[in-house]
Amino acid sequence: MSMCIATYRSYDDTADFNKKANSIAIGLTVGSWTDLPEAKKTSMEKHLGKVLSIDVHEPNNAAAGERYADIKIAYPDINFSRDIPALLVTIFGKLSMDGRIKLIDIDVSEQFASAFPGPKFGIQGVRNLVGVHDRPLLMSIFKSVVGHDLATLREQFYQQALGGVDLIKDDEILFENPLTPIEKRVEVCMEAARQAEQITGQKLLYAVNLTGPTSKLASQAKKAIDAGANALLFNTLAYGYDVLHELSSDPEINVPIASHPAMAGAMYPSPHYGISASVLLGKLNRLAGADLVLFPSPYGSVVMPKEENLAIKEVLLNDMHHLKTSFPVPSAGIHPGIVPLILKDFGIDVVVNAGGGIHGHAMGTAAGGQAFHQAIQASMSGIDLRDAASQPNHEELRIAIEAWGIKQ
Ligand code: 1AE
After folding, report:
1. Helix, coil or strand: residue 4
2. Domain check: are 209 and 328 in the same one?
3. Per residue in 263-296, pLDDT tens?
4. Residue range(s) defining the domain that contains residue 160
5. Could you tell me the strand order of the sheet in which 50-57 lies?
6. Ligand 1 pocket by C-beta < 6 Å: which residues?
7. Can 94 be counted among the known catalytic residues?
8. Residues 173 and 230 in one domain
9. Band of the pLDDT at 61, cuts 50, 70, 90?
10. Which of 113, 141, 160 is the last residue of a domain?
11. Cα of 144 to ligand 1 centre, how many Å?
């Protein structure tokens, strides 16, 4: 029987975890079991959740609150339709509100996964679009977007592009507005991209923020694509994974989609509640079709523990049914002095992403991008950033390091 498996971490100082696991497996599937007549039990068997394992952690001399069990339960696919809302409501709907319990992993069945095309481009496809195969990609984020007109945003875009970045993304707080509507923004920015390419030789993707009511998102995306958009940014958690899935599987939306983590902090950081970062930002984003997945890094201003970052990386890059890989994009407060750590932890299949760390450069935005490229090149060649920065043609890196230092 085809089944999706959920793993939970349940904290309780006194609970009988066997009982708890059984009550979850039954309660979230057939509702009750012992009260059923024998004949009914036979017909309901195929719907019944199964407890696969219970791993109790009972530390010696533990302070109250540290006893927990990791519980694995398999849910028959026959119980839910093949969409992410149905899966989530089945495995963690009511249960998410029932005491100290966190959903720490999901393994969907082959049958369930077959309903999801996943990322249309994946890492390889994004690399093909920008023509870069041998180094991490560099992404720049618009900063200061609200209340500006098209000319101002165009200039900001142009300066970012002159820094030689591979991608530029809108800030996630830039919504549909009369000053810079999506199709106009795309027109002027893509024109600036072509102008910059004459100088840098670098092709780039502009991930324009797709916003507005859910019912209009697909038509907004197509309007942006008709105007020349070659990538989209999407606030996945505010809309829901199913919306991302609908967009990514639409054949007319044939550009990479970057999934922004806004709202994720309401769900992953607690050890006792919510959903682990690797599921929330990793597996579900990939299943729903994100080509690039943004998340807070362990090194910058909004910090996620390193193990959780690496767990996201694993689930984006490892084999997962037929799905293409998604680019990990550890973000927030990134500056050139952090680049060696990013490359050490992520290798080259990563997007180095910065807003303030590019625009805040004392020589300007374009120099900010160049400083990152110098840091990436030095890190890939195993050259200490300070040595690289002392080279005469690495003025941009030197100034960045003077301002922000090198993170150890
Ligand atoms: C975790 C998302 C980071 C993000 O979207 C963003 O705008 C970062 O900006 P900076 O690099 O911290 O200025």
Report:
1. strand
2. yes
3. 999 999 999 999 999 999 999 999 999 999 999 9
4. 122-404
5. 50-57, 68-76, 3-11, 101-107, 274-275
6. 141, 143, 171-172, 261, 294, 296, 301-302, 331-334, 354-357
7. yes
8. yes
9. low
10. 113
11. 12
